């Protein structure tokens, strides 16, 4: 039970990193300025590294029959467990930055807690990831403030992005049997305890940026059960194209 | 009066040429002839734009890279190229021109970028071919520019060359892996070789006998080796690398010259070269439209950042 839960937990973390890195890497040669092109690519690189480490651990948990690349490139839509927010199209720069703020703030609290895990591998991953996430969070926060409190146009774009993305934030904190099993064993993180901290943090950034969070409302859900938006299938068909077309090739 | 001005001009030129002759580097604060400054702005900005436009063809494959490691390497490589663009814009700015002016020149067609990026990147093997051949050709040129006379340019080249040699090795590794792979992979690799070989040779520019700018560039030690010298250097090292992994060079006239210890290549299709330079390559329009579109889409972000900066300045 614990093994299976841990495996699934790793897929969740690994898929979050993998799919968000996919989206961020789409900014390459599309950024509003060269510096930002490089910054977003850098985040994508951090996340591929993270996905690789976590999926490798997941593969070891299953006896190493499938490699981390098999897990990334040979699973289908319903076998992915990333949060829906990571797979949404980038939208404009405002939407990408708001998404990054929501996710990086979540990851900041999540990996801070995961550093207390009694699973040595997860603990090591948490320590390394937290360093990167702190930087992502700082960068996203700076931009949210700059664009929220910039021009009328940038303010509007930011507010629109927040209003759209908000319904995808509830899912970050959803817990199921996997979570409770791992919390009991001292391995996983209690997401319920993170939510108020995350909320206060985001509220403060919104205040500094002259932006507003929507009233609590309807929240999207599904990824814990492998039910996704329509966007994920397109990501996978592109990402997995070579591995699926040439199954015997070695790259 | 007119005479006196001329002597000042002449004095600048004499001092400048003395420095060049002694092999001293020219620094931004040094007095330099206008022609030297103009030549450098043209060359450095063309180089910077090439790094940046070159991100487009490669980023075309980021989302389709076949493994996590391959994706990491490719992303990091493209990121390096963007970084090269930044150092080079910085070097050009020391000559008294701003990045936004340089981008303006690119968009109006006044400034150019390397022709090689007007070719399409069709398969994953093209990613290997680009790293190996295109970066390989760029290195030969850039190693020679490490000793160019303008200090900021030469220092940018030293930094850039270290990273370029990684790119070249990584590209070669992709080709080697594909040549050791399935029949389909081998065919893909050879096909990429066939399409990228000749455009890579063209990267060195026209033959020495018909190169328009080289006179002053040599005298001022901006350029230290001729186009043909550099092209030969590239061919010599690359032919051997191709043989090691079983790739054929798509040149039936290629032969080893015992006498001078170089390979002799067949005729380059200069008609195609000039056609692509004139804007009629497969991707010229696409690359430039993309750059302009992205630049325009980013305008609100740059304006907002500036507006925010001004607000903060007023508050302090
Ligand atoms: Fe380059
Ligand atoms: Fe470069
Ligand atoms: Fe390069």
Topology readout:
The complex is a heterodimer of chains A (251) and B (316).
Chain A: H1 2-25, H2 34-61, H3 68-73, H4 84-87, H5 93-114, H6 120-148, H7 152-165, H8 177-184, H9 191-208, H10 231-239, H11 241-245
Helix pairs in contact in A: 1-2, 1-8, 2-6, 5-6, 5-7, 5-9
Chain B: H1 2-22, H2 34-53, H3 55-59, H4 68-93, H5 99-107, H6 124-145, H7 151-179, H8 183-202, H9 214-219, H10 227-245, E1 255-257, E2 262-264, H11 270-280, H12 284-297, H13 299-315
Antiparallel strand pairs in B: 1-2
The complex binds fe (ii) ion (FE2) (3 copies).
- Low-confidence blocks of residues of chain B: none
Oligomeric state of this protein:
heterodimer
Q: Mind summarizing the main beta sheet of chain B?
A: 2 strands, antiparallel
Largest binding interface between chains = A-B, 49 and 45 residues
H-E string of chain A = HHHHHHHHHHH
Instruction: Look at the structure and give the mean pLDDT of chain A.
Output: 97
Largest sheet of chain A: none
Number of strands of chain A: 0
CATH architecture of chain A: Up-down Bundle
Task: Please name the CATH topology of chain A.
Answer: Ferritin
Which structural class matches the secondary elements of chain B? mainly alpha
Per the principal axes of the C-alpha atoms, what is the gross shape of chain A? globular
Distance between the termini of chain B: 50 Å
Helix content of chain B: 55-70%
- Regions of chain A with pLDDT < 50 over 5+ consecutive residues? none
């Amino acid at each position: 039970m614990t093994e299976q839960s841990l495996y699934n937990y790793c897929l969740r973390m690994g898929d979050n990193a993998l799919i968000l890195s996919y989206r961020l890497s789409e900014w390459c040669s599309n950024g509003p300025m060269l510096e930002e092109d490089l910054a977003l690519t850098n985040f994508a690189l951090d996340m591929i590294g993270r996905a690789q480490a976590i999926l490798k651990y997941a593969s070891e948990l299953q006896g190493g029959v499938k490699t981390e690349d098999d897990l990334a490139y040979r699973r289908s839509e319903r076998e992915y467990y990333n949060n829906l927010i990571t797979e949404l199209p980038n939208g404009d720069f405002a939407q990408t930055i708001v998404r990054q703020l929501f996710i990086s703030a979540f990851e900041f609290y999540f990996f801070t807690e995961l550093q207390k895990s009694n699973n040595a591998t997860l603990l090591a991953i948490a320590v390394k990831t937290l360093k990167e996430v702190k930087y992502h969070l700082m960068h996203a926060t700076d931009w949210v403030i700059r664009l929220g409190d910039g021009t009328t146009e940038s303010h509007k774009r930011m507010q629109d992005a927040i209003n759209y993305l908000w319904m995808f934030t509830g899912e970050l904190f959803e817990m199921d049997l996997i979570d409770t099993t791992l919390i009991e064993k001292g391995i996983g993180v209690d997401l319920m305890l993170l939510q108020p901290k995350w909320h206060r943090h985001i509220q403060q950034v919104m205040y500094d940026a002259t932006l507003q969070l929507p009233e609590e409302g309807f929240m999207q859900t599904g990824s814990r059960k492998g039910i996704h938006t329509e966007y994920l299938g397109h990501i996978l068909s592109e990402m997995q194209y070579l591995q699926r077309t040439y199954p015997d090739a070695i790259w | 009066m007119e005479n006196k001005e001329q002597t000042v001009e002449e004095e600048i030129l004499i001092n400048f040429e003395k420095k060049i002759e002694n092999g001293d580097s020219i620094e931004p604060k040094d007095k330099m002839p206008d022609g030297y400054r103009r030549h450098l702005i043209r060359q450095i900005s063309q180089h910077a734009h090439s790094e940046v436009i070159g991100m487009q063809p490669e980023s075309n494959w980021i989302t389709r890279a076949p493994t996590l490691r391959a994706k990491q390497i490719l992303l990091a490589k493209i990121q390096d190229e963007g970084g090269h663009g930044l150092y080079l814009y910085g070097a050009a700015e020391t000559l008294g021109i701003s990045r936004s002016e340089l981008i303006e020149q690119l968009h109006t067609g006044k400034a150019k970028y390397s022709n090689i990026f007007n070719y399409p990147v069709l398969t994953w093997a093209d990613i290997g071919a680009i790293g190996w051949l295109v970066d390989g050709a760029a290195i030969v040129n850039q190693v020679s520019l490490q000793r160019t006379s303008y200090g900021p340019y030469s220092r940018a080249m030293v930094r850039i060359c270290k990273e370029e040699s990684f790119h070249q090795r990584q590209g070669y590794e992709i080709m080697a892996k594909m040549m050791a792979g399935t029949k389909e992979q081998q065919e893909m690799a050879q096909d990429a070789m066939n399409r990228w070989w000749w455009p890579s040779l063209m990267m060195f520019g026209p033959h020495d006998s018909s190169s328009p700018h080289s006179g002053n560039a040599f005298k001022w030690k901006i350029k230290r080796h001729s186009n043909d010298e550099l092209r030969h250097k590239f061919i010599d090292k690359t032919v051997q690398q191709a043989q090691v992994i079983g790739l054929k060079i798509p040149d039936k006239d290629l032969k080893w010259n015992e006498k001078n210890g170089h390979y002799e290549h067949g005729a380059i299709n200069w008609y195609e070269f000039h056609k692509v330079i004139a804007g009629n390559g497969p991707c010229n329009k696409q690359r430039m439209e993309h750059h302009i579109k992205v630049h325009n889409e980013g305008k609100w972000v740059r304006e907002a950042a500036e507006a925010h900066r001004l607000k903060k300045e007023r508050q302090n």
